[in-house]
Amino acid sequence: MNIYDIAAKSGVSIATVSRVLNNADNVKAATRQRVLQVMQEEGFTPNKFARGLSLGSMRMVGILCSNIRDPFYANAVGYVEDFLRQNDLNAVLRCTGPAVEDKQKALDYLVHQKMDAIILVGSSSIEETDNSHIAQAAAQVPVIIINGYVDLPGVYCVTCDERAAIAELTGLLFRRNRQRVLLLHGPMTQSCRQKIAGYTDAHKTAGMPLVESRIVESERQLEQINACVKHLLVTGVSFDAIVGTEDVLAVGAQKALQRIGLTMPVVGFNNSHLAQCSSPELTSVDNELEKLCNTALQTLVDLLDKKEVTPHITIPARLVERESFRFN
What are phi and psi of 303, to 5 degrees? Predict the structure, then answer.
């Protein structure tokens, strides 16, 4: 039973039910009593999210991500959409690709469609220098970013501490006598830059020399990853462990090593389904995506309930060790 059902059974509009929920004055006493009676008969308890919405609300939340085909983004959108559906809200999804102009257009569209809030998924929604498009949107509607950070009024961020996670992982490899760790990364997003910073931190902490040739960007398709690893070996780049900033990079690197007949520890990031589908099963850093999404959604509830909200919440990652974490 939701407010649509309550409205239908009471013979009133959804807007009238919203006015009753918000204890507004402009509802006739008899109408209010009828709606309240239906709620009582049906055992309906309105959630805080519904009460927090304004009377003129379109009951819509915009979701913006760069690439819905990416497992991280797809799972995040799934968590968010499930929550919104359970709370009788509509989701409007816009996938932008990497171009800032397209991100600007998508944000403008969501703002003009009178969203109650906008959720940005992933750090790829953030530019390294100019985020005026986010600032403009946040001036009109609350903006929440899942695993991305920008310091702007009206923007609320929930991030995984990926820098600390990579620093801890790289340090662990050093302590297990792996001195030449290769960092294989994808596109240079904010998340990627944080992971590279963590890798650099670990070298400084351990007093190890940072070899730039061991920080390598690769395309995310398996054949391109295979070609990248082979090229590194042919050109004399020496490494005894591989850290991929995403699971797909680590899985591709692991397959490349298998084809060549080499064995070394390989670790991914995100703890996606790829980690358990690979052979051997991939050790991966879990960035706690479900917790990130739940925290972001609780932030949304608190904002609409007029509560004080922390603008930036950080969640620690955890290492999930599997078969690929071998030390021969």
Answer: -60, -45
- Report the CATH number of the 60-160+289-317 domain: 3.40.50.2300
The 3 state secondary structure assigned to 188-239 is: CCHHHHHHHHHHHHHHHHHCCCCCHHHEEECCCCHHHHHHHHHHHHHCCCCC
Kindly list the domain boundaries of the chain, sorted by start residue.
Answer: 3-46, 60-160+289-317, 162-287
Report the top-level CATH class of 3-46: mainly alpha
Q: Are 104 and 134 in contact (CB under 8 A)?
A: no
Q: Looking at the domain 162-287, which fold is it?
A: Rossmann fold (3.40.50)
Residue 90 pLDDT > 90? no
pLDDT digits (tens, 9 = 90+) for 245-273: 999 999 999 999 999 999 999 999 999 99
Q: 5 falls in which pLDDT band (50, 70, 90)?
A: confident
pTM recorded for the entire structure: 0.81
